[in-house]
Amino acid sequence: MSEPVLETRGLTRSFVQGEAVIEVLRGVDLKIAPGEIVALLGPSGSGKSTLLQAVGLLEGGFGGSIRIAGREAAQLDDKGRTAVRREHLGFVYQFHHLLPDFNATENVVLPQLVRGATREEAEARARDLLTALGLAQRMTHKPSQLSGGEQQRVAVARALANRPALVLADEPTGNLDEATADVVLAEFLQLVRNQGSAALIATHNERLAARMDRVVRLHDGLLE
């Protein structure tokens, strides 16, 4: 069997509030195979975002092991974590976080340039992704000129631009109406599958989770 693209062992995270210690993650073990799309279910406040922050190497303070694409990443310094994120990870959030002064194409081009692509390569990749997401006529529009669904499509294209081994998505359609959410998620999942990336997608929506390859549930700091 191929090596997991993500493997956590005994992942923990706690926070201090006054004199109390809040254990959000109490020893999470998770494996995701290359190309596998996994739904992370749990109610609000269950720690889904905390888990995604951990495996996305977005902050420290976590205990346990995090292996990404075969590399132990939990104890890396800031430079090392940045390198792993750049080489192996893509992110989609509930709110798009697009750069407001850049148009749709430029928002998708930028992460590719950071990774070392030529501008010609980056622009071609951006055009392909945005066209696949139904934005062929909106490529030169800035975020303020796009609808919520269109902005989230640009965010999806940006996350997939560097063909990451693993895409992490935190309620990626949670800010959209139901009909738009269905369409955007379908397009997102199709693109992820087409390029062979794995994905861990946090949601509280059972119906959306059922469209993924596997469902894991976070409860009381542990996966069920």
UniProtKB/TrEMBL annotation:
InterPro entries: AAA+_ATPase, ABC_transporter-like_ATP-bd, ABC_transporter-like_CS, ABC_transpr_LolD-like, MacB-like_ATP-bd, P-loop_NTPase. Transmembrane segments: none annotated. Residues 6-224 form the ABC transporter domain. It holds the Pfam family ABC_tran. SMART domains: AAA (SM00382). The keyword ATP-binding applies. The keyword ATP-binding applies. Keywords: ATP-binding, Nucleotide-binding, Transport. PROSITE patterns: ABC_TRANSPORTER_1, ABC_TRANSPORTER_2. GO terms for molecular function: ATP binding. Belongs to the ABC transporter superfamily. PANTHER family: IMPORT ATP-BINDING PROTEIN (PTHR24220), LIPOPROTEIN-RELEASING SYSTEM ATP-BINDING PROTEIN LOLD (PTHR24220:SF689). This is ABC transporter ATP-binding protein.
